[in-house]
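Lab channel / #folding
Pinned by the channel admin:
"Please post every new chain as: sequence first, then the structure tokens as a reply. Keep commentary short and put observations after the output so the thread stays searchable."

First post following the new format, from NK:
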Amino acid sequence: MSGIAYLRGDATVPSVKGVKIVAHVCNDIGGWGKGFVLALSRRWPEPEAAYRAWHRDRAAGDFGLGAVQLVQVERYVSVADMIGRRGVRTGSKGVPVRYEAVDTALDRLAGHARELGASVHMPRIGCGLAGGTWSRVEPLVEERLVRRGIPVTVYDHD
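Reply from TO:
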């Protein structure tokens, strides 16, 4: 039995009290414009601007597979940009999702969530445009977040 709560709805509108982190998987080439990021951008301008600046300054920072950037968008809400995709297209090396990078990013996210006392809210990360399967991602979420006592809600949009 999963310790993840599953809801129908919008992950950008978590309806619980307390500090919340909305987590999602990004690509490693600076692209922002399809999938869940559109919902983020409709709600808050800060995540896109921060992601693009992070990518632009990547030579001087930690931008790359497995990295996480937290962007505060409201008093009790932050967005976690997790780099877990190599590029944006399926090619000779398979789908864009990189499960090892998602795992590393979730481990880093756990540190942020524990430090803030936050719950984590997300769509089925890595399973849309990234081409991953939830049967591979769900155990990573369980291991890195749920087993560490971090409440996780996964949203399936209507």
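NK: The chain has four helices and six strands.
TO: also worth noting, The mean pLDDT is 93.
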